[in-house]
Amino acid sequence: MENGKKQYQTAGRVALLAYLKAEATETPQTADEIYGALRKTDHTPGRSSVYRMLGELAADGAVRKYQAKGRGSVYQFVGEHADCGGHLHLQCLSCGRVSHLKCDCSAEISARLMKTHGFLVDSGRSVLYGTCFACVGGGKENA
Hints:
The protein is an alpha+beta fold. The chain has 2 domains: 11-77, Orthogonal Bundle (Arc Repressor Mutant, subunit A); 89-138, Dna Ligase, domain 1. The protein has 5 helices and 5 strands, in the order H-H-H-E-E-E-E-H-E-H. A 3-stranded mixed beta sheet has the order 4-3-5, with no helix packed on it. Strands 1-2 form a two-stranded antiparallel ribbon. It is globular, with a radius of gyration of 17 Å. The N and C termini lie far apart (37 Å). The mean pLDDT is 81.
């Protein structure tokens, strides 16, 4: 049960989750982009159903919702058991890709902000904006 309501595994919901897992793990997409892609499948949920299911998935933590410059709300699949709470995220302002900060910087930044400013960072909801290595012109991003 999610959000106190029973969630049925309809064909549309299954198609949405499969699509998000395959296509929206690194590059968040708008609800309209997701709906447009789902229209090409056999089990297309209605537009309002896609919006409703994305809202439910975001509330449950399976999908993260971001505001992307010039695009509005975008959604990234993080899975049912993903732990995004332990690190900061990086979002490219050019391509929209969201990645996890892979080093110990998240803990260092969070500790510094708490010590210096008395501010507790919610790492799972914190995003640093900039330009990824690929968009800067360096080709493939460093891992």
